[in-house]
Amino acid sequence: MLKAIIFDMDGVIVDTEYTEFMLQKEFIEKLKQHNRPITLEQQSETVGKSLNDIPEIIKKLSGTSLSLQQIRQQYRDFFHQIFSQVDFVSIFRQEIKNIIYFAKQNNIKLAVASSSPLTHIENILSTCGIKQDFDLIVSGEMFSASKPNPEIYQYTLNTLQVSAQNAIAIEDSYYGILAAKKAGLTVIAYEEKRMIVDQSQADYIAPDMNAILQLITQQNLLT
């Protein structure tokens, strides 16, 4: 029986993953110390990675002589700057409210398990008016290893006191899907076609929140 639905946030609840991805390209270009183009496939390696892990990929792609610590600081400043200007409500996937309503009606617990910083998660959920609907909010910064390490999902399940067999994860990135699968969850991927993201490990792929809700109610995921 379904007892919990666990959401990733960026790229699932809000379309921030693509927003960051597009602006991130400019950041990499400014650091780049070679003339080779950065392909969509190469940059897509950052999708679903934590704020702490992305700078390692940026250093590799840009070939910059800056230290990893310098890139991390610059990227954190960049991250906070771009998201201080984003209208989160405009990229909020409003149809999640249908899933929230369904969960409340069926006594299903709700959680967010995101690689983003906790302040970022809570700010977005509060701005979109749904923070109070979640039983648990978990940030990847609480753990030494980010997704695809399954620890964030294992912790979330343990805290909710729900077994993996009775929970569903809603993810979009390859790393997030892999983390949830390693933790033993059924995974529904929120379909992403603008970036190169391998979602083949998910149990299901759905184009929007309403389709995700249909999967939950029609594919025997409740039993």
UniProtKB/TrEMBL annotation:
Cofactor entry: Mg(2+)
SUPFAM superfamilies: HAD-like (SSF56784)
InterPro entries linked to this entry: Beta-PGM-like, HAD-like_sf, HAD-SF_hydro_IA, HAD_2, HAD_sf, PGP-like_dom2
Keywords: Carbohydrate metabolism, Hydrolase, Magnesium, Metal-binding
EC number(s) stated in the UniProt entry for this protein: 3.1.3.-
A molecular function (GO) term: metal ion binding
Pfam families: HAD_2
Family to which this protein belongs: Belongs to the HAD-like hydrolase superfamily. CbbY/CbbZ/Gph/YieH family.
Name under which the protein is recorded: HAD family phosphatase
